[in-house]
Amino acid sequence: NRHGAILLVNCDSEQFYHKTPDSDRKHITAVSDLNDMSPMVLRTKGPAQLPPGYKLTLHISRGDAEKVRVFRSTVFFPDFVKRYPLVLDDQVLSQEVPYQEETKLYVEGLRFPDKDFDGLLKIHLSLLEPISEDFPETPIYTDTVVFRVAPWIMTPNTLEPVEVFVCSTKDNYPFLKGITGLAKKNNYKLKVCYEYKNRGDRWMQDELEFGYIDSPHQHFPVVLDSPRDGDLKDFPYDELLGKDFGYVTRVPEDEEVNSLDSFGNLEVSPPVTVNGKHYPLGRIIIGVAFPTSAHGRNMTKVVQDFLWAQKVQEPVALFSDWLYVGHVDEFMTFVPAPGPKGFRLLLASPDAGYKLFKGLQNDGHGKAKIFDGLGPDEEISVDEILDNERLKSENDYVQNCIDWNRDVLKRELGLDDDDIIDLPILFKLMEDNRAVAYYPDMVNMIVLGKELGIPKPFGPKVDGRCALEAEMTSLMEALGLNCTYIDNFASYHKLLGEVHCGSNVRRKPFELRWWNLEM
Amino acid sequence: NRHGAILLVNCDSEQFYHKTPDSDRKHITAVSDLNDMSPMVLRTKGPAQLPPGYKLTLHISRGDAEKVRVFRSTVFFPDFVKRYPLVLDDQVLSQEVPYQEETKLYVEGLRFPDKDFDGLLKIHLSLLEPISEDFPETPIYTDTVVFRVAPWIMTPNTLEPVEVFVCSTKDNYPFLKGITGLAKKNNYKLKVCYEYKNRGDRWMQDELEFGYIDSPHQHFPVVLDSPRDGDLKDFPYDELLGKDFGYVTRVPEDEEVNSLDSFGNLEVSPPVTVNGKHYPLGRIIIGVAFPTSAHGRNMTKVVQDFLWAQKVQEPVALFSDWLYVGHVDEFMTFVPAPGPKGFRLLLASPDAGYKLFKGLQNDGHGKAKIFDGLGPDEEISVDEILDNERLKSENDYVQNCIDWNRDVLKRELGLDDDDIIDLPILFKLMEDNRAVAYYPDMVNMIVLGKELGIPKPFGPKVDGRCALEAEMTSLMEALGLNCTYIDNFASYHKLLGEVHCGSNVRRKPFELRWWNLEM
Lengths: 519, 519
Description:
Number of strands of chain A: 33
Mean pLDDT of chain A: 92
Number of helices of chain A: 13
Shape of chain A: elongated
Structural class of chain A: alpha+beta
Helix content of chain A: 10-25%
Distance between the termini of chain A: 7 Å
Largest interface: A-B, 38 and 39 residues
Largest sheet of chain A: 5 strands, mixed
Low-confidence stretches of chain A: 17-23
Oligomer: homodimer
């Protein structure tokens, strides 16, 4: 709980490349690798030489040995590889180090904090005294340094984008064009994952989550690879892991992975303060089964454990199992906004949807059609929607599910009703009474600074203009945000996803450094 | 971190008797069992009846379900067993409860805090609203209560004894008589474990550790059964577990048990304050391998994890692997004493031993013999001891090992040199350079209030009086303590143990209640 030394998990490609061909790596092979490690200096004060038989020994416990390695810097070897010999690892828990005025060492983290690891590592130095040749030396002085492994940190929608990720498929040209335009408009980098790599899996949001690790000497992005493992499964390791781009994953050993394990079901709030408690890096948000249900779907335990163990963005569990796909991004998102909190929570709202449609009917637009222009099979009038009692009771049920989450979000993020904007979105129920969006789900959007890329809802037209877009644009423009509606009807909505599900954004890290948090 | 409700692990015999014949217990079978549970009252304020279809549901998470059960009290059944039906357990995570002004429930803890369980349990109540018969009810309000499971607490030598435990064997009559006399003198209860049960295993200290659990409504002793499992292994379960006497054990699944797993290697200090941090229930003390050694013996991980997880007596790890048997009680104990700290730490000290023997030689008693009267094979003179250079260097090594522990104890218990008394005890090395006491190890004593039962050292006699006893008695009488020397030479010392190893003491709980600690 005090200030101390920080260690990064050396999870970028230098680490991984070494591991694969040569798991017994005994040296540092690249100078860039040194940058990922924390320097540790051993300084001695005393006689020019130790008396005969006395020794300095560096040592770690067996428990810590699988989480840390220590290398030593020597000046004797012109060969770079020999210049940084391994001192401690899981095979060598204790090793003599030279007695000299100053010894430079490099410490490498190997494991992120997790359920069984609080992130603290101890490295000990002992001075050993000889009794006689017959007996073991005994320690007469021990000093200890503690390192804390830097947590994996997620980046909310309010942070500035760096790079936008999207898949190219045979059938998604309008979508790809829409996203590309938005990224180019703001000069964000764009990375397209092509079909040879995505094999038709377009759900870029679901396969991975971008985050970063940070220390005073170094920081770099780290992708958390979802255990979902669709056809995009090799993308994070093959295409993202790189020099100064880290990789971490958690895969359950004896649990089935389900749709709630996709990372459309893993989001993070902007910074919040709740009853005086500050969360300056926000709070992670995941969706799980409703607690009164014994047989619901849940996010797998190993991923939940990992997320909770990072500690700096204490997670909030919402109820998302009422949705057929089951992802929190189907009913909520955050957008930057003026005001002291700096953001608004957007929630899908069947009530707001029915209010809008009733207003249209009252104003004489009952014959206007949603899905206008998508063909006679799809089109359906405002009157028909409002006459459908079954649809109404399904949406009452959905509203109840969202309201329960709304209460949790208000309580756990310290929000007032003024901080929340209800978007007119209807749902319908599928098998098992689980819900999907009735028309393209506008809350499932991509947020790029002040630019929003929103699923084009294909709502009823009034005077040639989509009434849903008009309402949405009006709500967002009041916050200074610009709306771009992207047609994802055939290529995403019909496959039960939308813009957010089909994209991903790497963002700048927080300016606030995590080690300044009270933990 | 705030005041809240407390739960006991229902680990006494009512629980165990039910578990063995009927692991699917669905009712409370004895009124005494209710006393071990925490009452939980559900009070409602609202209309006389809920509107049709609305329900109150009590629920727990899957993770908590293996650690807690909830029973409900009904007045309808004259049959006691039916009067307390099970509401929640690991099979039923959610169940409707009646809507009435007041419902009385009983909550039962099933698991002690451990590495994977911080001791906090949540029980939720939700009000469910029906939408229509076709859909699941949705929760519209949820309330939650948090319980903390009471930790297992050890009792230091400074607490008043209640009951003394010792084994009877074919060959230990003088020892048994000595302990019996001490217990009777103070009117402590005495429990003798006879040979049919101990099967020759006399190490009553090593098979078990006494502790207790405490809550505002109930407290009782709980024995921690060591994974040592010598021939005494059935004694804790068969003879100690009882009505209001709990039982807990931890056995490693895939690790070999060794001598450091005996509970002569598990002690607890009196209350201490260290750099302003209070440990009003003392600190647990265990012995492990020295950290610079990669291949030493250690206390098994599952027991260490259990001890650390209790949190209220944060453990200190000493270095005991230098001893052949490897128990901390071979070189240290605590005795009550006047002064602000209320105790002294006694340490075995080869240096103090050599000082005493040299003093005898200087005073002309070099021909006096230790082991006097135990036969010519055993007897050896002060001069011979002092002439043995090998023995001296062995003891220098032992002193270094103890000094390292002395430094740890001073630092971790906040002790000064004045708080520590060095007892004149010599060691010798066996195979692997591991140490055993050269003559009966006086520090390995039983502490019963102000009465000390000390291994009779058979030291050199001066004017007919044992010089070791004289020194020991003089040191202890200065603290107001009475020494009784018990002959355990043949029946314990020769088998590498002493008085403490062969006895055990159940003590009164602390008056301070653990939930008043800052955690």
